[in-house]
Structure formats: C-alpha cells, structure tokens
C-alpha cells in the first residue's frame, strides 16, 4: 500500500515535470517564430544591398542561436537539479518503505536484509565522469558484484 502510494506520487511528479517541459518547449518555439518574423520584417524595411543583408542576417542568426543555446543550457541545469531533487526524494521514500516493512515484520532496520529489488531505472544522458565514486560501506558487496557482472 505505501509503495503504491509512493509510486503514484512519483508518477504524478513525473507527469507534471513532463508537462512543464512541453510548455517550455512550446514557449521557446513560439518566441523563435516571432523573432524570425520580426527579423524578416526588419530586413525588408532596411532595403539593404544584398551582400550587407546576408551579413546582417548571419549576424542576427548567430546572436539568436547563442541566446537560444544559453536558454537551453539554463533549462538543462534546472532539469538536472530537479532530477537530483527527485532522486533524493525517491531514496527517502524507499528508506521509509523499507523501514515500514521492517517494522511490520518486527525486525530492526539494521538487522533486516536489504531489498535491492526496488531499484528504479532512470534514463539519463551519457556523461564522461572522472574522479571518485561515493558509496556506502554496506553496499560494497553489491557494488563489487555489479562491477564483475
């Protein structure tokens, strides 16, 4: 019952997150279209020589792409921060579920076996990591087993 409730909450958060991303993408698309229309109108009003017009258009496109790139980087950082927050919440909920299950069986949380079947698959972008790996001492056998397999 508790795990279903937590799963439902997690699904609801994921749905809201996806809706928020879609809304932001639509907003970026609309702004991009508006900016392109304004740029076309501006170029037509200037009636510049063809060479100057092309150079000006390229400058405007470079500026637009740079701004769009910065906006997307900001959005990516926000989404990564949200992902970390959701992962922390998930760990907390998983711990609560394990503690609850342990209290139902009458075993203290330290003496019960860890339930590793409750892993959640999170799709993520491949990154090139460098440095140390942080882990809990009690997870060392599982980590070694996963590294070997």
Automatic annotation (TrEMBL):
It comes from the Eukaryota. Keywords: Coiled coil. Residues 3-103 form a coiled coil. This is MYO5B protein. It comes from Sapayoa aenigma. The lineage of its organism: Eukaryota, Metazoa, Chordata, Craniata, Vertebrata.
């Amino acid at each position: 019952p508790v795990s279903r409730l937590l799963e439902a909450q997690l699904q609801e958060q994921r749905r809201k997150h996806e809706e928020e991303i879609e809304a932001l993408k639509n907003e970026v698309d609309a702004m991009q279209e508006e900016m392109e229309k304004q740029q076309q109108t501006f170029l037509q009003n200037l009636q510049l020589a063809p060479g100057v017009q092309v150079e000006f258009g390229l400058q405007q496109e470079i500026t637009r792409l740079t701004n769009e790139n910065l906006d997307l980087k900001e959005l990516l950082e926000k989404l990564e921060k949200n992902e970390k927050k959701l992962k922390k919440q998930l760990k907390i909920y998983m711990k609560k579920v394990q503690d609850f299950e342990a209290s139902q069986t009458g075993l203290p949380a330290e003496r019960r076996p860890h339930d590793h079947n409750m892993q959640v698959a999170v799709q993520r972008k491949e990154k090139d990591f460098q440095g140390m790996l942080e882990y809990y001492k009690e997870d060392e056998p599982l980590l070694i087993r996963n590294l070997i397999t």
